[in-house]
Fold this protein.
Amino acid sequence: MELQGKILPDVVFKTREYDETSKEGNPFKWVDKTTDDLFENKRVVVFSLPGAFTPTCSNKQLPSFEELYGDMKALHIDDVYCISVNDAFVMYAWKQHQQVNKVQLIPDGSGKFTEALGMLVDKDNLGFGKRSWRYAMVVSDSVIERAWVEPGMEDNCPTDPYGESTPENVMSYLTEVEDRFKARAKSA
C-alpha cells in the first residue's frame, strides 16, 4: 500500500487528559483532538500496532521508539505518536504499565483514523476484532512524507510481521534526509 504523499484523514480522537481543577472524584476529562491538533504545522513520527499490551508491541516496538525519541527530536521531529485501535482508558493504562514518558499514545478507539488511512484489518483469528496493521511514517504538516508498512497485509493474518516499521528504519531515513540537507547547505 502506497501511503507517501497522502494527506492524513480528518478525524476526531477521543482522548483523556489530567485536570487538576476537577471537583469530581475522577481527575481526568474527555478532550477531543483533531487531526489538525496533532499534525498541523508539525513534523512527526507516527507508528501504529495491533494492540496495547501485546507481546511485540510491548516488548519491542513501543520501548524502542521511546528509547530513540531524543535522537528523532534531534533530527527535526516535533513529536512521536503511537496510534492504536484501543480506547483512551486502555492506552493510558498501557502508558503507565510501560513507563512511557516521551512518546504520546493516541487512542483510535473506533478505528476511524486507521480505516480512513486504509490500514484497518480484521484480527478475529486472535479474538481482537478490527485492529491496525503495523506501520510507521514520517508526517510533515499532515502529509505523509515517508511510510514503512509491514508486508503481507491481510485480514486474519496468521503472522505478525515486524521488521519494516522499526524505529531503526525511521532513524536511518531521518539521518539520510539530514545528511542530504547538510550537504546541500555546504555546497550552496
